[in-house]
Amino acid sequence: MKASEFEVKQPQTAIVESSERITPPDADEVRHIVLNIPDATFDYIEGQSIGVLAPAPKDFGNDTHFRLYSIASSREGEDENLAQIAVAVRRCFYIDEVSGERYPGIASNFLCDRKPGDEIKIAGPYGRQFQAPRDKNCNLLMIGIGTGIAPFRAFMKHIYRERNEWLGKVRLFYGARTGMDLLYMNKERDDMSNYYDKETFKAFETIARRPYLGEEPPIEETLMDNAQEVWSLVQDPKTYVYVAGLSSLEKKLDRVMSQMAGSEEAWQEKKKELKHQRRWQTLLYD
Ligand SMILES: Cc1cc2nc3c(=O)[nH]c(=O)nc-3n(C[C@H](O)[C@H](O)[C@H](O)COP(=O)(O)OP(=O)(O)OC[C@H]3O[C@@H](n4cnc5c(N)ncnc54)[C@H](O)[C@@H]3O)c2cc1C
C-alpha cells in the first residue's frame, strides 16, 4: 500500500503520549499507543483509521512507508481527551522465503519503538463506511480477530458511554491465538469488562486449540455453537454486522453463514442484500 493510493492532503504531526504493551511477554507484542494530535480540526468517527507515514529504508525508493491503523478511541477522544486517540499496534515480522531470514515490518516496528514525546507523521482519517448505526434500537453483531478488536473498542465506548445506553443487542465474537493474546480482554488490560454488566451486551471469546502449531482461533465454531442467535440476528432488519481483522476471516464466515443459510447460494444472496442495505461492513487486512 502506498501513500499515493490514499489522499494524503496534509500530513500532520502527532506526539506519542504513551505506549503500553497490552500482551504479556510470552505472547506476541501488541501495544496500546496514545497519540496527541495538536491540530484541533482533526475529526473522526469510530471505525475510521489513520495513515502512519513511517520513514522508509533507503533502498525502498520512497521516502515514507504508509500503513493504516484503526482508531481504537471513540469520537470523544482517548480518556475523554479530545486531542488524543489510541491505536493498537501488533509488532509484525516477516520471514523471507528465499533466505529464511526474519525481517521487521517497517511501520509497525517504527510505531512500537516510539517513546513518549516522539513526533510522528499521520494522515487521514480514512474509511467512513465502517460506521455504527445511529438508532439505539439497532443490533450490532461484531466479529473480529486480533487487532480487529480496535474499532469495536471504539464502538463500545461510543454506544454505552457517550450515547448513555443501547437498547438493541450487542454481540461481540472475538478470537485470538491464546488467552494472553486477547486484546483489551486479558489480564494486562481489560477495557471490555466496563460493559459486561450491560444487559444488552454479550461477548464470546475463541482461542486456538494448538496455537504453537500456528493454528488460528476457530471463531466459526463459536459462531456455529450460537447459530440460532447469530442467524436470527442476521435476519433481523435492525441488525448491523461488522467484520474486522485478518482477511482470512471472510472465507471462514462465508462457510459458517452458508451452513446457517442452508446453502452457499442462499448465503451469497443474503450477503448481497445485507451489503446493499449497508448492514454488512468489513475492515479486513493481511
Ligand atoms: C484498514 C486497515 C486497518 C488496519 N488496522 C490495524 C491495526 O489496528 N493494528 C495493526 O497492528 N495493524 C493494522 N493494519 C495492518 C497495518 O496497516 C500494516 O499492514 C501492518 O502493521 C504491517 O505493516 P508493516 O509496515 O509493519 O509491515 P511491512 O514492512 O509493510 O510488511 C508488510 C508486508 O510486506 C511483506 N514483507 C515485508 N518485508 C518482507 C520480507 N523481508 N520478506 C518477505 N515479505 C516481506 C509481507 O508480505 C507483509 O505482508 C490495518 C490495515 C488496514 C488496511
Topology:
Blueprint: E1 12-21, E2 30-36, E3 49-55, E4 64-70, E5 84-90, E6 93-95, E7 102-104, H1 106-113, E8 119-126, E9 139-145, H2 149-162, E10 170-176, E11 201-207, H3 219-225, H4 227-235, E12 239-246, H5 248-261, H6 264-276, E13 280-285
Parallel strand pairs: 9-10, 9-12, 10-11, 12-13
Antiparallel strand pairs: 1-2, 1-8, 2-5, 3-4, 3-8, 6-7
Short description:
By secondary structure, the chain is of the alpha/beta class.
Provide a descriptive summary of the structure in words:
- By secondary structure, the chain is of the alpha/beta class.
- It folds into two domains: 7-125, Beta Barrel (Elongation Factor Tu (Ef-tu), domain 3), CATH 2.40.30; 139-285, Rossmann fold, CATH 3.40.50.80.
- The protein is built from six helices and 13 strands.
- β3 (49-55) and β4 form a beta hairpin.
- α3 (219-225) packs parallel to α5 (248-261) and α5 crosses α6 (264-276).
- The longest helix is centred in the middle third of the chain and has 14 residues, at 149-162.
- The chain binds flavin-adenine dinucleotide (FAD).
